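Lab channel / #folding
Pinned by the channel admin:
"Please post every new chain as: sequence first, then the structure tokens as a reply. Keep commentary short and put observations after the output so the thread stays searchable."

First post following the new format, from NK:
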Amino acid sequence: MPANENDKTRTFSILDDKESEMKYVLATVYEALSEKSYHPLDQIVGYLISEDPTYITNYKNARSLIRKVDRIELLNTLVKSYLGL
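Reply from TO:
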């Protein structure tokens, strides 16, 4: 008897979810900084290096959003992506 699609085990990765969330947060923060005429890359890098939230605007709740993401995890993900790992 053929297996029903609903009988198959489905898998998901929490890591993929975290990476998707980090990407969403970065894109949202980048957009908010751009709309306020800041230099988004400089501001995001400043925040990542210093952990000073004032690098990020409050506009569109960007500062709160980026503080929900673990900085070290984000840096790890960015380096891995850059290296193609």
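NK: Helices lie at 14-35, 40-50, 62-67, 71-83.
TO: also worth noting, Residues 14-83 form one domain.
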